[in-house]
Design goal:
The complex is a heterodimer. Chain A has no helices and eleven strands. Chain A is mainly beta. Chain B has no helices and nine strands. The chains are: A mainly beta, B mainly beta. At the A-B interface, strand 5 and strand 10 of A face strand 3, strand 7 and strand 8 of B.
């Protein structure tokens, strides 16, 4: 069965960086893209960007351009999202999700989420 | 402020039919597919509807989606207590060159 398992809780100080991992299993990792979405406490969903696990092509949301880097390691079927220059308003649950087979902009399997807290 | 607008809350009694609206613009809903997600408390979102009105096989047919112009709707018939959740619409936005989500609607089953 398809599973995305994310790394654990992170606590960071303002100005630091965080790198969240997302290990995939149960499918051919290179055949699907990975999207990252975040959710601040009590707030809605925010799309951060996408990376192709096939060729590494990326598309980052304008709000995160210059501050985020998404990568994949096909040898371990793991995707990574690094966010730099953290601010308090980056405190959120970060989700990875797999692109669906429908070749659209929908995501059919999600990780369990990683809470990142930014606090001095 | 979300690019696509949803009512913050909706409610219904068991067995009722409820609809949740999502209003956008020509750069998102008007020219692209709409998707709907359900997020139960404390869990990751789950895909409910893709390509405006298609359901993944594991989603009950009580859930249906529609789109007209720059607006879309999610309908839930035969409302059940386990449907109490947050619901989000989503679409690609040509102006932003990215996926945008609605602000979410909290559904309460009375």
């Amino acid at each position: 069965q398809v599973q995305l398992v994310q790394s654990g809780v992170e606590v960071k100080k303002p100005g630091a960086s965080v790198k969240v991992s997302c290990k995939a299993s149960g499918y051919s990792f290179s055949a699907y893209g990975i999207t990252w979405v975040r959710q601040a406490p009590g707030q809605g969903l925010e799309w951060m960007g996408w990376i192709s696990a096939y060729n590494g092509n990326r598309n980052y949301a304008q709000n995160f351009q210059g501050r985020v880097t998404m990568t994949t390691d096909t040898s371990t079927s793991t995707a990574y999202m690094e966010l730099r220059s953290l601010r308090s308003d980056d405190t959120a649950v970060y989700y990875c999700a797999r692109d669906s087979p429908h070749k659209g902009y929908d995501f059919d399997y999600w990780g369990q989420g990683t809470l990142v807290t930014v606090s001095s | 402020q979300s690019v696509m607008t949803q009512p913050p809350s909706a409610s219904g009694t068991p067995g009722q039919r409820v609809t949740i609206s999502c209003s956008g613009s020509s750069s998102n809903i008007g020219g692209n597919y709409v998707y709907w997600y359900q997020q139960l408390p404390g869990t990751a979102p789950k895909l409910l509807i893709y390509r405006n009105n298609q359901r993944p096989s594991r989603v009950p047919d009580r859930f249906s989606g529609s789109k007209s112009g720059t607006s879309a709707s999610l309908a839930i018939s035969g409302l059940r207590s386990e449907d109490e959740a947050d619901y989000y619409c989503a679409a690609w936005d040509d102006s932003l060159s990215g996926v945008v989500f609605g602000g979410g609607t909290k559904l309460t089953v009375l």
